[in-house]
From TrEMBL:
The chain crosses the membrane at residues 12-31, 43-69, 90-112, 132-153, 165-186, 192-213, 234-253, 265-288, 309-333, 345-363, 375-393, 399-419. Keywords: Cell membrane, Membrane, Transmembrane, Transmembrane helix, Transport. It comes from the Bacteria. Its main location: membrane. This is Putative MATE family efflux protein. Pfam families: MatE (PF01554). It is a multi-pass membrane protein. GO terms for molecular function: antiporter activity; xenobiotic transmembrane transporter activity. It is found in: Cell membrane.
Length: 437
């Protein structure tokens, strides 16, 4: 059967999506292992991990422009035949990662205790969270360097090396985690040490890869300032997500220790699956950016339709799997009866949202690849303010617990779906050129 443009594009898509899937799955999969290991220590350590992990996640998630913004800029340059300039974007993103990571490390050590107290409904949980955080924060600069490395490599369509680098770090740490926690009897702190080891190994490999590229390695403020301009809208978007996540964890913690433990388990699964589905988005981001950089608007539109369909099919399959295994999976993470009793209050929202999330995350990649960051910022804020936050705090006021929290998440995803489908169909996102005007 002769090749068609659609089949050729599908093969390129798969070559980018599969390694991206491995990279995206590695970190949340490690966190799932971490959650399972700590979950067998009991409800208090699990609640402490929940609070600590959500705080650490704010640092990396609010700086996603180091990966997604860098990919968008590098992909356009690569599509325009300027691969050397695309790699230079990675150099400057790495300098930004080191500078911002160092500042956040210091600030995190200062504010770890008051933040943990604010988020925890129990003094014992707060102490456990602080113990974990003080160690885990040491990995922040390395987390951000890894994000920058993934960004420029995806932009030049190198998906294999990032997979190797991330698996090297997380694989070793996944082996160390249960040893440090249960064999060496370091408890929750052992979990944090294993986390830092993963980040150091992966970041070192990315730094070495960048050092051998034939591009200037000195800081260039002009490029960094341009990256910060792209990052502004993505940071605001990420802050909206993280304010919601922090609020949800705080309300769950004030509901009960069992509720926040259950929320931690289902939330980590949600994050894990969202990042798995982001493999579609990352492939779309790289290919859409390349097409627009090469002034091929028609190919960019075809990719948008293609990836939305992939997201729907993949999300539906995941929903079926998690629905069928509803009585099995939670028991892998904890044996605490109170936590297991709370999990169904969030679980079925998690299952039903999979097909919707599949489309939303796929279209994220299309619009990110196009550099349509202002619209993405606005539709995310609309979902958070119009759905998630009101229901989270109503859950605290009226005692709705996890049902109210996850209803808010569902409403915010639906709002994003409606907005992003309308935007994609309008075609206003498809601006061609090596740099988006």
């Amino acid at each position: 059967m002769p090749d068609t443009p659609e089949r050729t594009q599908a093969r390129r898509f798969v070559r980018l999506a599969l390694p991206a899937l491995g990279v995206l799955a590695a970190e949340p999969l490690y966190l799932l292992v971490d959650t399972a290991v700590v979950g067998h220590l009991g409800a208090i350590p699990l609640a402490g991990l929940s609070v600590g992990a959500i705080v650490l996640a704010q640092i990396s998630t609010n700086l996603t422009f180091l990966s997604y913004g860098t990919t968008a800029r590098a992909a356009r340059l690569h599509g325009a035949g300027r691969t050397r300039d695309a790699v230079a974007e990675g150099v400057q993103a790495t300098w930004l990662a080191l500078a911002v990571g160092t500042v956040l490390l210091v600030a995190g050590q200062i504010f770890a205790e008051p933040i943990a107290r604010l988020l925890s409904g129990d003094a014992v949980v707060a102490r456990a969270a602080v113990d974990w955080l003080r160690v885990a924060l040491l990995g922040v600069p390395f987390i951000l360097v890894t994000m920058a490395g993934n960004g420029w490599m995806r932009g030049v369509q190198d998906g294999v090396r990032p997979l190797r680098f991330v698996l090297a770090g997380n694989g070793i740490s996944a082996i160390l985690c249960p040893i440090l926690v249960h064999v060496v009897h370091m408890g929750l702190v052992g979990s944090a040490i294993a986390n830092v080891i993963a980040q150091v190994i992966s970041a070192s490999l990315f730094l070495r890869a960048l050092a051998v590229e034939r591009v200037p390695l000195r800081p260039q403020w002009t490029l960094m300032r341009a990256q910060l301009g792209v990052g502004r809208d993505l940071v605001v978007r990420s802050l909206a997500f993280q304010i919601s996540a922090l609020s949800a964890t705080a309300v769950a913690a004030h509901t009960s220790t069992h509720a926040v433990g259950a929320h931690q388990i289902v939330l980590q699964l949600w994050i894990f699956i969202a990042l798995v589905l982001d493999a579609i988005a990352i492939a779309a981001q790289s290919l859409v950016g390349e097409a627009l950089g090469a002034h091929d608007e028609r190919r960019a539109h075809a990719l948008a339709r293609q990836v939305a369909w992939y997201g729907l099919v993949f999300g539906t399959a995941l929903g079926v799997v998690f629905g069928a295994l509803a009585s099995v999976i939670p028991g892998l993470f904890t044996t605490d009866g109170g936590v297991l009793a709370e999990i169904p209050n969030a679980w079925w929202f998690f299952v039903v949202l999979q097909p919707i999330g599949g489309v939303v995350f796929a279209l994220d990649g299309v619009l990110l690849g196009a550099g349509d960051s202002k619209f993405m910022r606005n539709v995310t804020i609309a979902g958070v303010i119009g759905g998630y936050l009101p229901l989270i705090w109503a859950s605290l006021a009226f005692g709705w617990g996890l049902v109210g929290i996850w209803t808010g998440l569902a409403l915010s995803i639906v709002i994003r779906l409606v907005g992003m489908v309308a935007r994609t169909r309008s075609g206003r996102w498809a601006v061609v050129g090596a740099v988006r005007a």
